[in-house]
Write a structure and sequence with these properties.
The chain is of the alpha+beta class. The chain has one domain. Helices cover 36% and strands 18% of the residues. The protein contains three helices and six strands, in the order βββααβββα. The strands form three sheets. Strands 1-6 form a two-stranded antiparallel ribbon. The protein has a two-stranded antiparallel ribbon with strand order 2-3. It has a two-stranded antiparallel ribbon with strand order 4-5. Strand 2 and strand 3 form a beta hairpin. The radius of gyration is 23 Å and the shape is elongated. The chain starts with 5 loop residues before the first strand and ends with a helix.
Length: 121
């Protein structure tokens, strides 16, 4: 069975949604803010240091923060099969996705369906 994860858009339709990761409970908005703070403060610095150590270029301090912001940072990509570099922007996005468990189907609920589709005699 294919799992269908849905992005929790806490800024719009999922505002006020609460997440339980027993024993802790968070508003989705607060949980994502905390994860973004860790990514911005620790993980991003580790990525930058790793790129420096492999001599893969150096991003200046403005780009560090902008990489996690909505505006992103300017870049170019070269895709296989395309003749030219394409200019655009890149960013690291942190978001939460949810996939509900399949509802359990009981025989009782099927009885109601059977009665509804079976013609009366």
């Amino acid at each position: 069975m294919e799992e269908k994860f849905e992005r929790l858009k806490h800024e719009t339709e999922h505002q006020g949604v609460v997440l339980s990761l027993e024993p802790a409970t968070f508003k989705v908005k607060d949980f994502i803010s905390r994860v973004r703070a860790v990514v911005k403060g620790q993980l991003l610095n580790r990525i930058i240091e790793d790129l420096k150590s492999h001599q893969q270029g150096i991003l200046d301090h403005h780009h560090h923060a902008a990489l996690l912001q909505d505006e992103g940072i300017p870049c170019e990509i070269l895709c296989p099969g395309k003749p030219d570099w394409q200019k655009g922007k890149v960013r690291i996005a942190v978001y939460l996705e949810f996939c509900p468990d399949a509802p359990e189907v009981s025989d009782d609920s099927l009885d109601g369906i059977r009665q509804a589709i079976t013609p009366e005699v």
